Structures
1.
Amino acid sequence: MSLSFKYLLEKTMLPVVEGHVEQSQWVNEDLLPTPPEKQSQFDISINFTNWTLGSSMIGIGLSWWQSIVVIFVSQLICSIAMAFNSRAESVYHIGYPCVVYSIFGIWGNYHFVVARAVMAVICAEYMYNILRAIFGHHFTDISNRLPTSAGITSLLILAFFLCWLVQLPFCHFRPYQLRKFFWFKSIVSLLSMFGLIRSLSTSTSRSSSATAWLILAGINSGIGNLANLIINQPDYSRWSNTPNASVWTQLVVTPISVTLSASFGIIATTADSMNLILDHYWSSRARFAVFLYTFAWLAQIYIIEFLDRAVFPLEILVSATKFQAFLSGYALMVAVAIMLCDHFLLTKGTVALAAYIFGIVVPFPGFYGVLGASVYTAASHIMDIAWVTSFVTSFIVYFAICWIWPTQNMKFVRERVCH
């Protein structure tokens, strides 16, 4: 082993946890309960990070007012799920990996740790506009080496790589170390909404049945937009200073702030609109305004996704429909229902795999269909309510299996309650 590799290995290894004889992948500072001196998060929150959600709803065919109503309903459902999923971790101060350990076992948790990292999607668009605003035609004249069928260009690949490169240092920070920056990004992203306003209106004609299913699909996509935040609640709420600090924040703030943010996104500019502005108004003032706007949003995206890893699905940005389908499909993979059922009804919780598979299998044909395959209409409609279908199925199956065949954890809890 070379000296340089040994040096790199020593620098990347986690320090030994005090009080533990052995250092292993199962024991480090991040996996242990949060110590009292670091339980400093209280119940004040603001979230303006769903700017493009509203314009995505417009893109799938909803009117502006339908989009706002759909977003509010979807975020209300999300806020309830987040509030429940943050309760256990606010009490026990443990992170997401530990919660999954207790349900899916030591090795079974790896699937979910990887699944929640597949969400770095938007930042490449903003990086593209920053590079274009700075370098102009010197950047856009770079030839595209990819075919049209790839659904992405060489320039976007370059922008995504640069996003990934800048994002790497943030993996070394913990949430409590970035508390002030969370406030900073919320304020900056809110102010950036008021620059470059434009109007947008749509008028479409369709049957009431088609509209109803489109609204349900929009609600499902809105939930999928926050699916990653729902499942990641343990990593945020573990820092709470009281058991209820994260509960009321999620219930009250999330529906209002996300709906406002997405509404501004409908009437104002988004990442794609920045390209149109640069196409028609190539002045130093316009370029500087685009740079400030996109830089503000790129900065807050880095902080929100600092725990993610860059995995880029090439096809999901081709259209609003495919992007919304991806968000809806991602929500199937995160097993929120099993986590809630385990904590609130069973062990307060390793039969989880069967329930997890049931929750995915039911709506998955519809997800396969929206990505291009030919499926029955019924499968497509099930996909329109995929999150609710997956949640209810997983919850019921997990509860039924554990009630009939109690796990060791359940037996232990019941014995303690009885005695």
2.
Amino acid sequence: MIYPFLDTVREAYEDFDKPIRKDDINKSIYFSVCHQIISGLNGDTENHKPYCMKLIRNLGHYYIDTDYFDPTFERCNILYNWIYHSSKKEGIPDNIIEKCFDDYNFQINRIRNTYKCSYDLYKNVVLDKMKLNILNLFDYNSNILKKTLMGTDVSNKNRCRNFLCECLKIYKHMNKSYCIIQGEQREKHSNICLELNKFNSAYKLFYGNLLGINPKIPSLDDINNEDFPRCLVEEAKLESGVGLAEGRVQGEGLEPQSEGTSHVAEQSDNGTSLNTSTVLSSMVGIPPFLALIYKVKIFLLKIQTTFNRNT
């Protein structure tokens, strides 16, 4: 099965990740802008200049009549994903990213007064939506998780437990960042706190219905423990908290591939055949978080399919 939208995402992501060409007519402009940005910052940031130049190019405000200029909102979202993963990988300070957006805003405002890509959207909306999407997966699939945890398949039970652990890590990180504090910061993120409160209530109800199962699932009552929540160390895990978005796709995670499972075709409710191995292998090179969310959904679909076959 071919997924055209994945090709579009992958191609855009690869465009953003390309090095600056030697014949790029705007190379000297990128260098000048980044020299000014980095010179005004403290610390050893000179080695970040190549990344800065790449980001200035990707924002497209010096690249008129190319695909980089005047991006669609969809392309901005892919750019945000690229910025997040590539900056984490290369250790890029956030103030460099913010300054690049400042230059983008200034230049675009001079041209036409409107811009589509935004640092605020990148920082305060997109990343939070990514993390909340994982918590929504718990809510949408709580019945599947409950049935699996009450079942006899130890491997699937452990995977479900690890998924719950990672959900709680996200909850703890976001709740601490936005909702425990009082004042303007909490008010600014009131929608996020509302979603976290919903997760809190849903998880407590879920936990209360599964007391006494083995393996035991973590409780929100232990949230102040330093090692909260305890996850199974022997199982391959998703990355935690903000690092969840950096989760590696191949060779780890919820759906370990083996000769016995790699060719199993799953059936969704509408009868579409999904081959786990084929889908995941087709996702090589796309933004890791998109692949991670898709992988979790494939895993939950497989759990549901297994349960349906046994009932």
3.
Amino acid sequence: MIKINNTDFTTKYIIDAKFKIKGVVEKSDIVGAIFGQR
């Protein structure tokens, strides 16, 4: 469990990543790439 702004959250994954991107992408594209979604 983690706490953000005094609110408790149960987490399944904690990911710390950096990306270099050329072009325009959506947040959902990044999440899909991490978890192998198409």
